[in-house]
């Protein structure tokens, strides 16, 4: 079995929130740190997937990070850069903007993992489509992703729909809620 690395997707522009979503505090520490703690039991190492600006801000920190290596603004940049960093690892990917996430969901994904498929992900809240930004991506997904990005296909959901993946029912679909703007954040009971 290939080693499983963690990847916190933190490199988005957070335009709607107006501040870096990965640094918002919901559980006593910045979300990117909180998620690192949650992922650690499943992974040999956990990296933050960051853009160039964030990476420069972290210059004096020893935080493990992978800087976006491609000229696109998309979560796929982060995942592809991770495969470029280590093509033989599998990557347990978690978006930084799911503050309700707990180990319950991560456990369900880890237990539902199918090594013969390219990825193991949950159905999204409609129970129909795959939720791409929380999942385990096997090494076989790397070349597929590379090709897709080369062709300008940047929709992670579409990419999953076109490939052989393992879909798992989320134990608590609420945990997959994205919080993208201050209004949604204010409504959260955390
Ligand atoms: N590494 C990396 N992560 C990204 C990139 N774009 C989005 N993400 C991450 O993917 C997840 C979902 O991001 P979105 O909500 O689609 O985009 P966003 O840039 O964070 O927010 P908006 O600017 O408001 O759309 C978050 O965890 C982001 O940090 C990117 O270009 N690089």
UniProtKB/TrEMBL annotation:
Record field: catalytic activity: Mo-molybdopterin + GTP + H(+) = Mo-molybdopterin guanine dinucleotide + diphosphate
Q: Which cofactor does it need?
A: Mg(2+)
| Any one Gene Ontology cellular component term annotated for this protein | cytoplasm
Domain description? The N-terminal domain determines nucleotide recognition and specific binding, while the C-terminal domain determines the specific binding to the target protein.
Asked whether the keyword Nucleotide-binding is assigned, the reply is yes
Gene3D superfamilies of this UniProt entry?
Spore Coat Polysaccharide Biosynthesis Protein SpsA, Chain A
The gene name on file is: mobA
Official protein name in the record: Probable molybdenum cofactor guanylyltransferase
Its job: Transfers a GMP moiety from GTP to Mo-molybdopterin (Mo-MPT) cofactor (Moco or molybdenum cofactor) to form Mo-molybdopterin guanine dinucleotide (Mo-MGD) cofactor.
Localized where?
A: Cytoplasm
Q: Which UniProt keywords apply?
A: Cytoplasm, GTP-binding, Magnesium, Metal-binding, Molybdenum cofactor biosynthesis, Nucleotide-binding, Transferase
Q: Which residues bind GTP?
A: 9-11, 21, 97
What the entry lists under SUPFAM superfamilies is as follows: Nucleotide-diphospho-sugar transferases
The record's listing under Pfam families reads: NTP_transf_3
The protein's matches in PANTHER family, at most eight in alphabetical order, are given as: MOLYBDENUM COFACTOR GUANYLYLTRANSFERASE (PTHR19136:SF81)
Which Gene Ontology molecular function entries are recorded, alphabetically? GTP binding; metal ion binding; molybdenum cofactor guanylyltransferase activity
Say which family it is in: Belongs to the MobA family.
Q: Where is the MobA-like NTP transferase domain?
A: 6-163
Protein source organism: Spirosoma arboris
**Which amino acids does the record list as binding Mg(2+)?**
97
> Which biological process terms from the Gene Ontology are attached to this UniProt entry?
Mo-molybdopterin cofactor biosynthetic process
